[in-house]
Amino acid sequence: MKPTTAQAQQQRLNNRVAVLKALAHPTRLWLVEQLEQQERCVCELTDGVDADISTVSKHLSLLRQAGIVTSRREGKQIYYRLETPCLLGMLTCIETALETKTPGCCGN
Amino acid sequence: MKPTTAQAQQQRLNNRVAVLKALAHPTRLWLVEQLEQQERCVCELTDGVDADISTVSKHLSLLRQAGIVTSRREGKQIYYRLETPCLLGMLTCIETALETKTPGCCGN
DNA sequence: AGAACATTTGGCTATTATGCCAAATGAAGG
DNA sequence: CCTTCATTTGGCATAATAGCCAAATGTTCT
After folding, report:
1. What is the rounded average pLDDT for all residues in chain B?
2. Which terms under GO biological process does the entry name (chains A, B) (predicted)?
């Protein structure tokens, strides 16, 4: 058992914050939801968003850096895939938590 | 069953984003963790943070607006309480999700 | 090689978030 | 009522984020 140093604590906080920050944007959250069922190429994703392609690309890039999605090239297109589908269940949990204020919701 | 309009979708996204944004800051996340076991007054919380009291106060105020904590006055002090303890389990889940990439983690 | 397509990157501006200080508020006690 | 203690609020300077356009990259097809 490591002695949990202040630095390690800080590191742990920052890791979590990185993921939260990545998800904390309407467009990015929408993108993640689109990837829940299947992988998609950038052009498909862009169609559903009211923003420049370059903007969407940057959002996806940010999600990739956060480890939430991965990408793979297939011909001219690049496909994005959700690495951790369970994150979305977590978001439903957030809503339930706030609405019901039930301490034991979300299965823990 | 309501027909899920584009506006409603947007609203749902924004609600979730509001919570994520509130949690997406190292100090605020730390504050929330401190409140996991018991309520605390501002002075207790301030002791553990390297930041001005006024800064901590603003963070707490932001968390309150997001519906994550509530506050109550007792004499000179104001006590903050975590409204939804299960949110923290969710955060552990984030870590597990990213480390293990297990689709079915987090119990969903 | 050159054109066409899909996506990313650079750069710039506008908006938003952060954090400190100082001043204001509110409660308790002399 | 005046002081002290705990906390919040206002204001401001600085940093981080978002989004658009234009240019660059990488791929396929001819």
Report:
1. 89
2. response to arsenic-containing substance
Query: CB B102 to CB A87 under 8 A?
Result: no
Encode pLDDT of A25-72 as tens digits.
Answer: 999 999 999 999 999 999 999 999 999 999 999 999 999 999 999 999
Q: Where along chain A do its domains lie?
A: 6-107
Which listed CATH number (3.40.50.2300, 1.10.10.10, 3.30.565.10, 3.40.50.1100) goes with B7-107? 1.10.10.10
Report the SS3 class of residue B8.
helix
Rounded alpha-carbon distances, angstroms, from residue B33 to A38, A95, B84, B88, B90: 34, 19, 11, 7, 12
SS3 B11: helix
Nearest CA-CA distance, residue B22 and chain A, Å:
9
CA–CA min distance A77, chain B (Å): 24
Q: What is the pLDDT of residue B104?
A: 57
pTM: 0.90
- CATH 1.10.10.10 is the classification of domain A6-107: yes
